[in-house]
């Protein structure tokens, strides 16, 4: 009996091995030329479990079968049958036998200068207001549209790296914009000349990036490898790689990096160790982190308007902790049970006091907190969990979505004083709506319909009348240059 079982196990594992070999063979034959011999990416994106994290295996099969419209990814339906495609996808979702590395030499070797900024005119070469441009990320076909913020007409549209994520960041004068892709590419683009300046691959799986308030440095945070990569913001050349590890040497992934302009520092959340880092950039290189102890791992955080305090939380916790950045002490804990998406939180004044509000990814509530005594003010019940929130100093409403709920085609407008839902908009029934950004003067609000046949829908922010609809391919985020460089009230950092 035992012998039969052993024989069966041997047969199964030999078959599994053969299936693995076969899939690897398929990869070499059909995928390697674009996605790289070690699956780290080439002209196509990396195909590692970390990079495919956001794709379901069925979706990956569909991409291999049918290709991706408007990209170089062709469909393989005529060359691979369904079972070969499934074996290939199984293989791609397994970690490679040897853990991939991406070191300073790899980063340097990936650096591409497309145009030298000093070879280009320093004045805008278009007639639009440079501080009222919108940078719109279209995640459906991985493109970026630069939009005039008065006429709402595109100035240009170009292919981005695969899967940009997080808000793009800007130089203090608004001339340059910096994008980070999930698979590690940073792109520097000149909005005056509508040209790419440089690109560099800082890691294999990147979280986001921040730009210093003096415009000299860009800092990217990575999951894989777990580190920070400091770049010269003028041309993206590599300055320093800072491994993310605590004092005892325990390694960590980086959850998020933001700039704190009045502090002239970057602040970094670490996902696997109980430390929060501040990196002052006004001093000399190399940069040394100041380590603050935190109670929980931090997945995300937000600042108070004066950047003295930080409100951070982990995705597992049932609340947030408030850290005084000056002395490193925890001064409060705030119960927030719905997994707050703090990076999207915003603040405004209510009854003479600052309040902070954030959507929650797990529960359909908006948490509103008093920023003076850190007491929860209200949980506003919505129709489902949401991702984003935006307002403008001139708007009476905070605009938010119920992205992950049943009514995800709605946008809710919350009255910033009464904290009640004042209006519901439904830009395209049945299609997910989310992420709003205002024009610089706050007169119009631009809203995304997240669909391949989606749109950017522009509303008069006061009358709530629709003024224009621009068809777009899954426009994820849009960012107004003036609002972003001013770090204005109502926007995320
Ligand atoms: Fe995001 C911003 C984290 C999933 C679209 N997201 C951010 C930021 C963080 C973050 C820390 C702020 C970075 C910045 O702007 O510099 N996001 C996370 C997650 O941890 C989470 C839940 C899981 C993950 O896979 O990373 C997550 N995010 C998503 C999505 O599924 C979204 C909807 C689609 C996508 O593109 O992946 C998404 N995240 C966005 C967008 C922003 C963002 C559009 C910028 C918002 C802004 O207005 O600034």
TrEMBL record:
Keywords: Heme, Iron, Metal-binding, Signal. Pfam families: Cytochrom_D1, Cytochrome_CBB3. Residues 1-18 form the signal peptide. CDD domains: 8prop_heme-binding_NirN. InterPro entries: Cyt_c-like_dom, Cyt_c-like_dom_sf, Cyt_cd1_C_sf, Haem_d1_sf, Host-pathogen_enzymatic-act. Residues 18-96 form the Cytochrome c domain. It comes from the Bacteria. PANTHER family: DIHYDRO-HEME D1 DEHYDROGENASE (PTHR47197:SF3), PROTEIN NIRF (PTHR47197). This is Nitrite reductase. It comes from Pseudomonas schmalbachii.
